[in-house]
Amino acid sequence: MRPRGIITIDGPAGSGKSTAGRLLGATLGFLYLDSGALYRLVAWHAARVGLDLNDTRALSAFLEGLQPEVAADAQSFTLFLDGEEVSQALREPWVSREASRVAVLPLVRSWVTEKLRHLARNGGVVAEGRDLGTVVFPQAEIKFYLEAALETRAARRRQEWQQEDSRPSPEEVAAALAERDRRDATRAEAPMRAPHDALVIDTTDLNPQEVVRQCLARIREVLPETRGQEMKTG
After folding, report:
1. Whose CA is closest to 90, among 14, 32, 38?
2. Percentage above 70 pLDDT, the chain
3. Alpha-helical runs (H) found in 187-232
4. Contact at 8 Å (CB) between 30 and 126?
5. Domains defined for the chain, CATH in brackets
6. How confident is residue 2, by pLDDT bands cut at 50, 70 and 90?
7. Which member of 69, 77, 114, 120 lies 3.0 to 4.6 Å from 34 by CB, making a disulfide possible if both were Cys?
8. Contact yes or no for 198/144 (Cβ under 8 A)
9. Shortest CA distance to 6 belongs to which of 132, 193, 191, 195?
10. How far is it, in rounded angstroms, from Cα 65 to Cα 159?
């Protein structure tokens, strides 16, 4: 029987949360949960239906009716809406920008928190986001907070758009990330911050495997039953 711990990974965009989360999920056989995908889903679908996010009553009704299907395993977190896979559409740059804006809304944060807690009800989870160790899973056995220099995070984020003809300049990406950092850190509802009991890792000069090795060292201290599992590299 697999261990039933909950592991959280928080931090700003471009710090390496998703890569670390997937590698840890694959290594431990834990379910990988991507909280950002749920915020992007809200932003994307709200734009599709022309929802006025300032209309609290309309937003509440919208969220009540938003029932995505989730297909999650150790390395992927895929969302379906009305039978259609929407994960790829949620990766558009404009969706990420809008997701940061809807994430300040208490109703949206409550909706995402409820979904994540339901998915993690049986434990055995690696969950990544911005308030998972502080708000969503404050009882998590192991918490990490990843950070990196703004220039490094901007370069990583820009690489994701490498195939696009009109990808933004490094300066534009850095400015957008800085604004998102400010918004996430100063929002009234669940601001982004390192949990007091988290291991903070600066990933600026680390590759994903080095980050995961540090995480695994802590995990194996807390969850002895995970010892002996070899790190997956893909």
Report:
1. 38
2. 93
3. 208-222
4. yes
5. 6-226 (3.40.50.300)
6. very low
7. 77
8. yes
9. 132
10. 35
Which residue carries 């990988």 as its tokens?
32
The Cα 154–Cα 131 span in angstroms is: 21
Question: What is the distance, to the nearest Å, from the Cα of residue 204 to the centroid of all Cα atoms in its chain?
Answer: 18
Mean pLDDT of the chain: 91
> Which whole number is the average pLDDT over 117-133?
96
HEC per residue, 30-97: CEEEEHHHHHHHHHHHHHHHCCCCCCHHHHHHHHHHCCCEEEECCCCEEEEECCEECCCHHHCHHHHH
Compute the average pLDDT of residues 78-88.
93
Tokens 């944060």, located at residue: 109
Q: How many residues does the chain have?
A: 234
Phi, psi of 94, rounded to the nearest 5 degrees = -65, -30
Question: Which of helix, strand or coil describes residue 105?
Answer: coil
Q: How confident is the model at residue 86 (pLDDT cuts 50, 70, 90)?
A: very high
Question: 130: part of which helix (H) or strand (E)?
Answer: none
C-alpha distances in angstroms, 26 versus 3, 105, 109, 174, 212?
Answer: 14, 33, 27, 31, 11
Question: Cβ(10)–Cβ(20) under 8 Å?
Answer: no
